[in-house]
Structure formats: structure tokens, C-alpha cells
Amino acid sequence: MYQPVYQPPHRSTEEVMTSMVSDTFLAFAMVVGLLLMLIGSWLMGLMDTNNGRNVGQVLKSLGVVILVGGGLLGGLLRKDMDKWVRAALVLFATVVLVAVGFWYMYL
After folding, report:
1. Closest by alpha carbon to 63, among 81, 42, 43, 39?
2. What is the end-to-end Cα distance of the chain in Å, rounded?
3. For 81-102, how does the pLDDT look when each residue is reduced to its tens digit (9 = 90+)?
4. What Å distances lie between residue 33 and 14, 71, 98, CA to CA?
5. How far apart are CA 77 and CA 15, in angstroms?
6. Is residue 81 helix, strand or coil?
7. How many other CB atoms are found less than 10 A from the CB of residue 48?
């Protein structure tokens, strides 16, 4: 006799994403983002050619993207954190994006 194949209950997308954004992931994203921003700033300041400055700008921009992404993911997906910590993460990501990502180019 035909019996349907057993399928275990599936977790929702929110549960999967929340489990992926752990404290270790947030700390790793922040450290890697800051390190890339630091190396990119060094390259932009130390290189004489335009290509070196472009590589520095790319590394710095990649660091900003990682830093902002980690802050927003942590602030928006982690329901177990205090609401003020989550608000501070979102505010931090916004300030980094605006101050370092945009206003830097016009200084």
C-alpha cells in the first residue's frame, strides 16, 4: 500500500536567519569590517599611484558594507537582545554608512 514520505516540520525563514546571526558572527563581521576599513585607509594614504588609491577605496568600501550589514542584521534579526542594544546596532550601522560611506567622499 502507498504511504506518503515523512517530511519533518520545516523551520521558518526567520528562525533560520536568526540562528545564523549569532554573537560570534556579529563579532567576526565587526572585526573583519573594521580591519578592511583600516587596511583600505592605509592603502589610500600610502600609495602614490591612482590604482593604489582605488584598491584602498575598494577595501574600505567593502569594510563599510560588512560593518553595516553586520549591524543591521544584528539589530533587525536578533529578538533575544535588549531593545536598546538592537536600536544602538541599527543607529551604529546608519552612522557608519552615512559618515564613512558618503560624507567621506566630499571632505
Report:
1. 39
2. 75
3. 899 999 999 999 999 888 886 7
4. 24, 11, 16
5. 9
6. coil
7. 7
pLDDT tens digits, residue range 9-47?
A: 888 887 777 777 788 888 899 999 999 999 988 988 888
The rounded distance, in Å, linking the Cα atoms of 61 and 100 is 9
- Give dist(CA 47, CA 39) in Å, integer: 12
Grid cell at residue 2? 502507498
List the grid coordinates of 97.
554608512
Helix (H) or strand (E) holding 15: helix 13-20
Cell numbers given for 104:
567621506
Whole-number Å distance between alpha carbons of 97 and 91: 10
At residue 71's C-alpha, the angle toward residues 106 and 95, to 5°, is 30
- Residue 71 has which C-alpha cell? 549591524
